[in-house]
Amino acid sequence: MVTYKLYYFNMKGRGELIRLLFAASGQKYEDFRIEKNDWPEYKAKSPFGQAPYLEITNGKKTMILSQSVAIGRYLARKFGFAGKGDEEQAMVDMYGDQISDLLNEFAKFMMEQDETKKQEIFQKLQNEIMPFHMKFFEAKLAQSKTGFFFDSGLTWIDLYLFNLLGLLGDQRNQLFEHFKAVKNLYDKVSEHGKIKAYLETRPETAM
Known about the structure:
The protein is an alpha+beta fold and about 210 residues long. It folds into 2 domains: about 1-80 and about 195-200, Glutaredoxin; about 85-190, Up-down Bundle (Glutathione S-transferase Yfyf (Class Pi), Chain A, domain 2), CATH 1.20.1050.10. Helix content is about 60%, strand content about 10%. The protein has 9 helices and 4 strands, in the order βαβαββααααααα. It has helices at about 15-25, 40-45, 70-80, 85-110, 115-140, 155-165, 170-175, 180-190, 195-200, and strands at about 1-10, 30-35, 55-60, 60-65. Strands 2-1-3-4 form a 4-stranded mixed β-sheet, with helices on one face. Helix 6 crosses helix 8 (about 180-190). The longest helix is centred in the middle third of the chain and has 28 residues, at about 115-140. It is globular. The model has no long low-confidence stretch (mean pLDDT about 95).
């Protein structure tokens, strides 16, 4: 029997993609939320000294995976959310990397401590960076027959973009005025049976 234990803080961020994949699959796992004061203890267990990381135990063998997207891709392949066939999986990964580029830009805003610089970054993010990336996602989603990125159904990148949009809070509504297919994806994932149940019951989680 394979067991999974996710180590991450009580926040959405990069670890939430992993939680969403577990929710969508119905696979049980331990969602271990690290207290900030305890991080040095758990940091030592992480391959790169970072969180999230996932502990996978199969009998006497244990593997630890770090890097949120690597974990997400691993679980997506395990649970059937990686796309159908090599070509579609490659396209899924391509869009996933584009979402990562956008998330990295958003992280600059989240990490900035200087309030003046933070507002400057936010303005650029809102007026230039987000629309630049969203136009690619909008174009792809507008062609979809299912409302997801690919007609084969839900993949990990649908969850990945959904989580990023969730991090924007009410600011995403301004984006949705210009990117209707992106809004449709957000709504569709929100109403996905297992995802909806998870969102309704997940612990109060910081940004």
